[in-house]
Amino acid sequence: MSGTTASERAAPAHSLAAELRAYPGRWNIALRCLLSCAIVIVASQALQVPFLAVSLFVVFFATQANLVLTRLVGLMMFLGITLAIAAAILLAKFTFGYPAWRIVMVAVLLFGCLFLMRASKLGPVFYIVATVITAVQGYFDLIGSPELVVRAILWAWIAAIYPLMVCMLINSLLLPAEPLRQLKAEVHRQLLQVDGELARAAGERSDAPALDPDDLPRGVLAVQKLLRFAWMRDKAFQSGQARHLVLAAALSSLREQALHLQPAGTAAATASIAALRAAVRRLDECIQAETPFDLHGFTIPDDAASHSPRAEMWHTLRALSERSAPAAAAAAEPKGGLLAADARSNPVYVQFALKTLLAMMICYVFYVGVDWTGIHTVMMTCLIVAQPSLGASSRKGRLRVIGALIGGALALSFTVFLIPQLDSLFGLLSISLPVLAASAYLSAGSERISYAGMQIMFTFSLATLGDFSASTDLTGIRDRLVGIGLGIAVSYLVHTLLWPESEGKPLAQQIGALLRSIAQLLGDRSDAEALAAPVAASRAWAAFGACEETLARVAFEPNWQQNEGEHEETTLRLQSLIEQAREILIDAGALRRALDTHAGMLDAAQREALARAQADVAARLRRYADELAATGDMFHALPPDVAGPLPVPPAATADDAYDLARRPLYRLAARVQYLTTSSARTDESFSHREAAYP
User: Fold this and answer.
1) CA 19, 25, 31, 34 torsion: positive or negative?
2) Model-level pTM greater than 0.85?
């Protein structure tokens, strides 16, 4: 058996370091969350509001990256919590004293919520309802008086709603994260990277971080996401939607060309780079001031007629300066109803609800049967780790275990060594806030680690902040860890044995949809509506982001039901397809920009030849995408007699407009040819295929 390479051993550490890295705005999220938590701790301890751990959970859940998301999530939480509390009071009124009927009614309510979590656009609301109903279920077994049960339910509503109000005020008045401000900061960061690459190409020193190929898609997705939030926040800003998409496309082009800059070898090249840096800085200033960009006062160098990356950057800036905003804006997405289109026909939603409910009922019967009420959070664990796929469930379960172990270890250490020494609220804050700050920082990360931060906070606060006085009881920490472990084990077994859901084939279909959107970017008119290039590019990059998120979950899917190596081979093939789709998307955008830039310098015959070749590439890409989406077979390749070499117009005089437009078409055709004829088991590299391309 071959040993593990050093790079493979270092990969998890590198990935963890990347997840822990501070991105712009991360500390802002953590500080807003920490400030809200400090106010809630002081208020709950001073006024003796119970369920402080629940209050802190609400703060963590409601504090989002920007004000738009925070308000949206806050509204959903308010509706979900209030609806769930009303349902719990009705449940107590009609079923208290009748355990059998209560269990039946709880099961019916949970089944409905679990079904609507998957089949409704208001899934987060029903998730909150299911969470509250599950938590309240334990009150009936712990409290013998119906009046006390209702009091506990009403206190739970207070403990959840007032932190929500505190969170809304803090996020709106103190350190507000406005999406437009975040967008400008992200654009400034990316243009600083471009400036840094230009400086290094001129032989100068720059403190700006270096660009790498992985930065390009991440930057595009960040800008697209922040644009959507800014449009949601400000209707006046949304009126310039088409212009913003053009700017986003230009920014992507500048960063793409900056990756390929060569060192300046002459004084003329150095002067051209200096002028480019000044133009990029003016673009940054215009974006920050929200004014039109122009190149007045700049003399475009003579070498801008070449096909070098530096020349392409000049072409992009000149086109952005001369081009007015296109009339076509992004077409509005069809709203549809609250239920998914296949809610009544797709059995997956019902199967998911049944699996999750079965796991929760097994855990409920167990802890009631053994009379171990301390592990009643086992039901909540089954609900939390229940995700639409095995990969997502596995990742959520791992994060919950890791977070609970870290939070439990911290709570155990503090309970033994520090809490007996505390005699004031200040002392409680001094040991709690550092843990909450670290948890908030983790929670502000990507979905790969964010839940671990929330779990650290919840486990720690449940053990150390559950009472209104110092407590040295360690049984709560033990019971919580046992409940989490048992809930994850039961949920894992149920979800893997009954109707297991894998996202492998659905991801292949997602990739097919991504490739169809790239064909649309190329100008494929087989669709009913023709989209402007910036709009089509925006949709394509959004589809690419969705594919990457799904791939991250597929990697966590259990492979014990598959043959040895089959899961790894499938995951690697899907990763390869996404990487190839990313390169095709980049090349398709470069082709559209080249055609837009040089269209006025081409004669009719040249435009016709390029358009025909572009249509052939789009048609080939669409055919492969349709077969991939229809079959979900990620090992699929078009037969050679169907996927012959794509015709590309012959070369003309070097460096003329026709050749500048033909070059990205040539590379794009080679990539599409490689994608549609290669299989998962080929060892042929793209560079070899490109060199042999006619």
Assistant:
1) negative
2) no
> What is the spatial distance between Cα 54 and Cα 410, in angstroms, rounded to a whole number?
19
pLDDT tens readout for residues 463-501: 888 777 666 677 877 888 888 889 999 998 998 888 888
CA atoms within 13 A on the CB side of 157: 17
DSSP state of 66: S
Q: Tokens standing for 357?
A: 């409910």
Looking at the chain, the number of H-run helices and the number of E-run strands are 25, 0
Which of 435-473 are b and which e, b meaning 16 or more Cβ less than 10 Å from the residue's Cβ?
bbbbbbbbbbbeebbbbbbbbbbbbbbbbbbeeeeeeee
Dist. CA 177–CA 440, nearest whole Å? 16
DSSP result, 421-477: G--SHHHHHHHHHHHHHHHHHHHTS-TTTHHHHHHHHHHHHHHHSSSSS-----HHH
Whole-number Cα distances in Å, 674 to 520, 570, 577, 666, 678: 20, 19, 11, 12, 6
How deeply is 566 buried, as exposed, middle or buried, from its count of CB atoms within 10 A (0-12, 13-18, 19+)? Answer: exposed
The CA distance from 136 to 92, in Å, is: 10
Instruction: Give the whole-angstrom CA distance, residue 171 versus residue 153.
Output: 27
Return all residues near 600 (Cβ < 8 A) that are at least 6 apart: none
User: Residue 325: pLDDT band by 50, 70, 90 thresholds?
Assistant: very low
Could you give the CA distance from residue 558 to residue 290 in angstroms, rounded to a whole number? 49
Judge whether 199 and 274 are in contact, CB under 8 Å.
no
Instruction: Find the largest Cα–Cα distance for the chain.
Output: 91
- Interval 403-424: pLDDT, tens: 989 998 998 888 888 888 877 8
Bridge partners (DSSP) of residue 120 are 339
Q: Are 506 and 631 in contact (CB under 8 A)?
A: no
User: How many whole angstroms separate alpha carbon 576 and alpha carbon 217?
Assistant: 15
Residues of the chain with pLDDT > 90, as a percent, come to 16
Among 33, 22, 23, 38, CA closest to 64: 33
Angstrom distance (rounded) from CA 595 to CA 661 = 6
d(CA 687, CA 691): 6
Transcribe 294-345 into DSSP letters: --TT----GGGGS-SHHHHHHHHHHHHHHPPPPS--PPPPP---SB-TTTTT
* Residue 449 identity: I
Residue 203 has phi, psi (to 5 degrees) of 85, 15
Residue extents of the structural domains in the chain: 24-176+345-497, 179-322, 504-691
The DSSP symbol for 678 reads -
What is the structure's pLDDT at 7?
A: 41
Q: 634, 509, 501, 510: which is closest to 556 by C-alpha?
A: 501
What does each C-alpha distance from 361 to 110, 356, 392 come to in angstroms? 11, 9, 22
